[in-house]
Design a protein that fits this description.
The chain is mainly α. It has one domain (2-239). The chain is built from 14 helices and no strands. It has helices at 2-16, 19-40, 48-71, 76-81, 84-88, 94-115, 118-121, 123-126, 131-157, 162-177, 179-183, 190-196, 199-208, 214-239. Helix 3 packs across helix 13 and helix 6 packs across helix 14. The longest helix is centred in the middle third of the chain and has 27 residues, at 131-157.
Length: 241
């Protein structure tokens, strides 16, 4: 556990101590604020639950995009700078390195989520929602962010540069986002399988409505585990090259 936290702390402070990390955070907050202002705080009267629904929808999408940007450097930058040798020669196992880097990405995304707290708080100015609804919404956001960070960690582990890692991570993430559209073009049983993989249309929607969906929790946790396992296997393979 100590080794995992060591890797996580090292990478997290790498985000905090660089312009890149703050630029991602600032851009994500700017876009989230603009979307919330345009679609959430409209001149047309809306139910408070609908405003929260819009907030969770757009914030989760921006969180997924931020996950691509912050994870593309996890392993790819180490290879470009040559510091990957230090990791390969360290006494830490591949699993500890992968999970530590995953935790650093989640810690940074959590920082972004905390910084957005003022947006759902604005609902209380003219409306009313329960704190439990907001908490469930944030749970959905972080679960999707977790899947995004795991995808990005895997993409970075198989890439030799950051641009390639970002492209691979984006393509995979877009696939899961657009599965509901792809499902319409398929026939059973493939239609049901592809539809089940959809992030927004299938698994995030209950969280937008303030409901904890165990199926959605299982899906995002399973996806996170699967891609972290792939990253672990990729690191093992590279160590034996």
């Amino acid at each position: 556990m100590k080794g995992i936290l060591l890797v996580a702390r090292r990478d997290f402070w790498a985000y905090i101590n660089t312009v890149w990390g703050w630029a991602i955070l600032a851009l994500a907050l700017l876009l989230d604020g603009l979307f919330f202002n345009v679609f959430g705080l409209t001149a047309t009267a809306q139910y408070s639950a609908d405003v929260l629904d819009q907030f969770v929808f757009f914030t989760s999408g921006i969180t997924l995009a931020a996950a691509v940007l912050i994870t593309m450097r996890l392993f790819a930058e180490e290879r470009q700078t040559g510091t990957i040798v230090l990791l390969d020669s360290s006494p830490l196992s591949e699993g500890q390195i992968v999970f530590g880097k995953y935790l650093s990405g989640m810690a940074f995304l959590s920082l972004f989520a905390i910084a957005t707290a003022y947006m759902p708080a604005l609902i209380f100015v003219n409306g009313k929602v329960s704190l439990e609804q907001i908490a469930v919404g944030y749970l959905g956001i972080l679960l999707m962010g977790s899947a995004g960070v795991a995808i990005g960690t895997w993409a970075s582990s198989i890439s030799r540069n950051q641009l390639l890692a970002a492209v691979i991570s984006t393509v995979v993430s877009v696939f899961f986002v657009t599965c509901w559209m792809l499902a319409r073009l398929l026939d059973p049983p493939f239609k049901a399988i592809v539809s089940y993989l959809a992030f927004f249309d299938k698994h995030l929607q209950p969280f937008q409505e303030g409901r904890i969906d165990t199926q959605g929790v299982f899906f995002f946790v399973s996806l996170t585990f699967a891609f972290l396992l792939l990253a672990n296997r990729s690191l093992i393979a590279r160590r034996w090259e």
